[in-house]
Amino acid sequence: MRSTAALRMIRPTARMMMRPSPSMFVRPTARRLAVPKEDQAGHTISQRLRKLKDIPVELLPLAFVVGLACFAAGYALIRKLTVDKTIRLYRQGPAARAEHSAEHSDEHSDEHH
Q: Bias regions of kind Basic and acidic residues — which residues (predicted)?
């Protein structure tokens, strides 16, 4: 019963009583204009190559730098994998050695028979 007494103490202010309720604005959706079709949409390779002319000239240095960076990263990765002899290709440790030697002994025993 205490809760009902507390609720009676809270009375709405005059401002709360005078405020109009928000109304919903219902509008019909706007009609969209039909987008004109391009005369040559890029479907074949030659048509796509013609579209390259539409690329802004300001983007060409950026494309050159990104391409050069990708080439350099690929070259560095391939060179590291082929030249560096300290890269571990197999697991190390006694368990890995035992497993590796067991695999090789099975291979050699199959070859002799």
A: 97-113
Which residue ranges of the chain lie beneath pLDDT 50? 42, 113
In three-state form (DSSP H/G/I as H, E/B as E, the rest C), the secondary structure along the chain is CHHHHHHHHCCCCHHHHHCCCCCCCCCCCCCCCCCCCCCCCCCCHHHHHHHHHHCCHHHHHHHHHHHHHHHHHHHHHHHHHHHCCCCCCCCCCHHHHHHHHHHHHHHHHHHHC
Q: Percent helix, strand and coil across the chain, each rounded to 5?
A: 60, 0, 40
- Beta-strand ranges (E) seen in 36-112 are none
Q: How far is CA 107 from CA 91, 93, 99, in A?
A: 19, 21, 13
Residue 38 pLDDT: 62
